[in-house]
Amino acid sequence: MIDIDIKKSEEQAKQPGNEHKMNPTPITIRKDYKGSEKLLGKIALISGGDSGIGKSTALHFAREGAKIAIIYFNEDEDAEQTKKEIEAEGSKCLLLKGDVKDEEFCKSAIAKTVSHYGKLNVLVNNAAMQFPAERLENISSSNFQKTFETNIYAYFYLAKAAMAHLTAEDTIINTTSVTAYRGSEHLIDYASTKGAIVSFTRSLSKALAPKNIRVNAVAPGPIWTPLIPATFEGEDLENFGKDVPLGRAGQPAEVGPAYVFLASKDSSYMTGQVIHINGGEIIGG
């Protein structure tokens, strides 16, 4: 069970939140996780890679031999810390600061990654935001637009820009959510974007299958990331994750290895699929 410091966690008033202010700090990689060069020589670009699931993915990729580029919004301290941890794994890290809602920035992020490393093999679309609202009438048009532009438009922008560089056996991995399958009465717009990501994953996988470029997704349940204290408060924050069968929120370290699987040859016969890491919720799809 995660013992959340409510007072400290509620100090985070803006998204996407800061990992270094969280109490407890999320676990992003297990000390006993053994890398086996599954991604040796690969170049991976991860949006929202400075913290949470994105950071966990970056660290697991680095331990498996990949070099990393991470996109982050404005969390400089988290990004620099993540870079240090990636480099401590014996890898390299390129930091790309910007707003994924901006298509030109997304194009630039792809171009800078390829210019810096010479190629791109794995694109992880992961950045997201959410604005909880108890009623549909409380969802502002502005927040609705920001949620869609961040959570699905950016995935399209980055994937489109990556097409000129991805080749056979390269991969795209999208982060969707359990809310895409069971819905969420207080995250209607967010859940809708996550449903769109599922359809985007399935459709793009069919389009790219002839090129042997695989497209899959991960659908996390309640995971302890900076987005949670940045968007929930009070009892909603204190009880986060307690309603799943395993009775607790998950750690990013429990999600990161799924991205390694989908990026590596271990999943060579998988495309258009979604891996569900949600604490035991039984859902369709």
Automatic annotation (TrEMBL):
PANTHER family: NADPH-DEPENDENT ALDEHYDE REDUCTASE 1, CHLOROPLASTIC, NADPH-DEPENDENT ALDEHYDE REDUCTASE-LIKE PROTEIN, CHLOROPLASTIC-RELATED. Residues 1-25 are annotated as: Disordered. Keywords: Oxidoreductase. InterPro entries: NAD(P)-bd_dom_sf, Sc_DH/Rdtase_CS, SDR_fam. It comes from Maribacter sedimenticola. This is NAD(P)-dependent dehydrogenase, short-chain alcohol dehydrogenase family. Belongs to the short-chain dehydrogenases/reductases (SDR) family. Gene3D superfamilies: NAD(P)-binding Rossmann-like Domain (3.40.50.720). Residues 1-22 have a biased composition (Basic and acidic residues). PROSITE patterns: ADH_SHORT (PS00061). Signal peptide: none annotated. It comes from the Bacteria.
